[in-house]
Amino acid sequence: MAYKTTIRNHTYQFNDLKQLLAKASPLRSGDVLAGVTAASYEERVAAQIALADVPLKTFLSEAVVPYEEDEITRLIIDTHDAAAFSPISHFTVGELRNWLLGDDADTLTLQQLAPAFTPEMIAAVSKLMRNQDLIAVAKKCEVVTRFRNTLGLKGRMAVRLQPNHTTDDPKGIAASIIDGLLYGSGDAVIGINPATDSPAASITLINMISQMIERFDIPTQSCVLSHVTTALKIIDKAPVDLVFQSIGGTEKTNSSFGVNLSILKEAHEAVLALGRGTKGNNVMYFETGQGSSLSANAHHGADQQTCETRAYAVARQFKPLLVNTVVGFIGPEYLFDGKQIIRAALEDHCCGKLLGLPMGVDVCYTNHAEADQDDMDNLLTLLGVAGCNYIMGVPGSDDIMLSYQSTSFHDALYVRKVLNLRPAPEFEAWLLKQGIISETGDLLPVHQSHKLLKSWI
Amino acid sequence: MSELQHYIPGVQEDPWEALKAFTSARIALGRTGQAVPLKEVLNFRLAHAHARDAVYSAMETDMLTNALRSNGHTVHLLHSMAADRYEYLQRPDKGRRLDKHAEETLKEANKDKDICFVITDGLSATAINEQVLPLLGELLPLIKAAGFGLGDFNLVQQGRVAVGDEVGALQRARAVIVLIGERPGLSAADSLGAYLTYSPQPGLTDDARNCISNIRPGGLTPQMAAGTIMYLLKEAFRLQLSGVNLKDEYQSGLSGG
Q1: In chain B, what's the furthest Cα-to-Cα distance?
Q2: DSSP designation for B71
Q3: Cβ-Cβ contacts under 8 Å, B256 against chain A
Q4: CATH topology of domain A145-433
Q5: Chain A 14-33, residues with CB within 8 Å of chain B CB atoms
Q6: What was the ipTM of the complex prediction?
Q7: Which residues of chain A have a pLDDT value below 50?
Q8: CA A170 from chain center: how many Å?
Q9: Domain boundaries, chain A
Q10: Which helix (DSSP H) or strand (DSSP E) does residue B197 occupy?
């Protein structure tokens, strides 16, 4: 079906929903690379005007990626909750935007509506929203998940401790873990990106973190971010807390990652059966990021933000503990500069939250992107205001294995301090007990005799 | 009697400096309040500045051309379809193709040789300017000694790895070696990568290549890199392929970072 807008006697026509969404999308380099972006500023606004008038019901009948060709479209359509959708079924996209910002859309209502939304509806409404709207709406959402602690509560911000090492040296990794713990990081997960994806290396690392968690009785979980098939191979040989996988928003994207819904289901069931969570059963960890579909030539002509939002349909099927967009990692051909990275991060965070996901953000950039620490400070602060579930904690912001810059343990302290955010409650109690933070949440000086240091120094 | 108090601009040091022995990660930085002490902030900023400067550095084409010609090699100066750095960073597709002048430039090029070279800036011309000649100093004698027919050297500005496919195909080389500046990290902004592609043709993807990464002082030495490339070259010509089906048994163990 075609969509039209007339501006000063010029009629813009958009052939289908996919094209309308792409042309309504705020400018970013990846959509230019894909050749799907609006040809002018005016055409972009014309597309947004047309998009505002599209009834939400249209998204249930007009697929962006064909139903017959894509198992994620089938998942979206087949699991759509018509009953939950009923209270908003008469809305247009524009009306949804206005309603989301109104006082009726409170935390509980938004939680109940999550299954009413399809990714494309949410991608559409986000394209009409300013950064301010993305922050205000996300802040109203609350998505709480549990494994060995409670993540996502309002007024809290957790940190994934990311102690990567160029050669997976266990001592080098342990050194970064201790550094992070003594800086109050690690409540979201202690999660390593292994330098090699071998089962043996994964087992060594999982055992190492697991022993630290047990020995110091830390209320957190471990994860080695190897491929899901590697995790499946070692699940009966190592104490696996969480299974990780990078996912995308089309079947072809996921197939380029070597996964599909059935492999993810198998992994989810296998790790659930271990029953290692003490507070809850959220056992999956997913990473996403705009641009992955185009990068795999699997975008079906859709814009990268719509593809990204479709990945959230995959994630929510498995009730994950953690989901984060790796927003600035992919490079400037997809998100060129600080402005585009910030916009994309706020979109991903807000869209994920509306769809019921425990969204974190890897606030990050590469050295060939037009971005620096100042851009990351801006984004980190905005995400703190928006109620982001967690960020990354990398020693000194410098990931020596993945060669990119993310947020540091110090950055986490900064955002908690200036916005009065606290760690996950169980982890906060542990930090107090260890003498790492004070009652007011400030870091305390640590002596060399501290038990976390004793066996190492 | 009241005395004016003097504030102390001190930083809180971390008593686990000793752990730095186990990792090059930026641990035990200390703090002031919750902030990183200025000395470490400036260290980080300097590393990022080196990386940014490397991304925007330019190939010293005169220096490279003169050095290669004085050794009797034929050198062609080429440009990708990416007009400048700005376009290069946003349009990887353009960095993979030669511009419209290339075909004319290459008319007189030597054809049907075993190996031709493509030297291209990639994301760090600094790496090209500093690592290429030392590497070739080790590699070319090995190539000659092994009896391979050496073709031309092609300097490509604003190029990506795959631009080597088009150059190699135009010169009908049996294999192309692309030397390219790697994406700068904070620890190294001058790292060179070497990619070997057997039977180069436009449209090939990365699974058709073998890569030797991290060639730089403190990483893979020119001698080690040349040895690895030579091993892969001989294997590629023996098996008549390159890429995922050609395993690098000549492990150096020095890559990474």
Answers
A1: 94
A2: T
A3: 166-167, 195, 401
A4: TIM Barrel (3.20.20)
A5: 29, 32-33
A6: 0.95
A7: none
A8: 27
A9: 145-433
A10: strand B192-198
